[in-house]
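Appendix B, record 7
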Amino acid sequence: MRWEDERFIKVYTRDTVDWCMLPWKSRSLFLLILRCVERSGTLELGKHGILGLATKLLVPPGDVPELEAAIGPLIEAGTLEIRDGVLTVPNYVKAQETRQSDVARQRRCRERKRIVTSHHAASHAVTTSHAASPAVTNHHDQTRSDQNRTEEIRSEQRSDQNKDLVRVTAHNTHSKKSDKKARSPTSQPAAMVPADPLPYTVGNLLSSLAQGSGGRIAISPCTEGHAVRITEIIRELHNSHQDGDSWQAPTLEEWHEVGRYIRARWSADIDLGPAWAATGGKLADALAKARRWVAAGRPALVKGHGVPVEAGTPLKDADDLIAEMRDQFRRANPGEEPPV
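Structure tokens (predicted):
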């Protein structure tokens, strides 16, 4: 297996009281589920339910009752959720994408230094014979290889944060150079000015939307064109707060709330994904509506005349609903204006 090409996940090792109180089969099952869920922390079970999960985990049919018994405590503890045929790990995205604090990184650095120091001390204790020299050399090579692997992982994390930014910057720079050459063949191309770093990547945004919506918003297929356009939207929304108004740049937590809002007004004929997110104005409009919904206390969404919305029923926008209610008031009370 080529470890450098394989996908991996974070597994935290702190044994909290709540974790230790779970049955050992439930703890083991949770770790297996972490390996199977999508990057959004969700797993589509469809109409198969527990049987679909058993198939995904390669559980023999005769052991399905044990699987049902083990998953119960996880659901009761809130570690897992199963709704509408979708299994969700609520804190998956946050746990996988959270970076270590400075204190934790310094502690790891000190631990690595102690390990390297102990290895050097052990190597000096080896008899300086010709036969032992190759082994010592190989050990140092292995130590350097481990250090290089650590640096590669850090570099990959930084690369994931900036890959969309680099692609867009390179694209814009190429366009500027081409335009300038067309105007003045003898002029030199302008120096590239690095753009402001993005607060999060396209993958972060789509994962937050997908988790908040319970999988209603898909994270694929995301083409390069979609990624470039969504990157531009992230930058536009992030930089809008610098115009002097009361606008606040959206956070990943707010995009999670946008997903919850979309899930609340879900309709069977809605098809949302990267193509929808890349369409001009869609994300900004959903963000504004979700903010109003959260500010109002996340009320149950209703359609005309205050009737609760059933699954698959198309919903009206809040502004249209308010306007319709005001018209109804005026018709029922001629000459009076509706209260604000």
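Remarks on this record: The radius of gyration is 27 Å. The mean pLDDT is 74.
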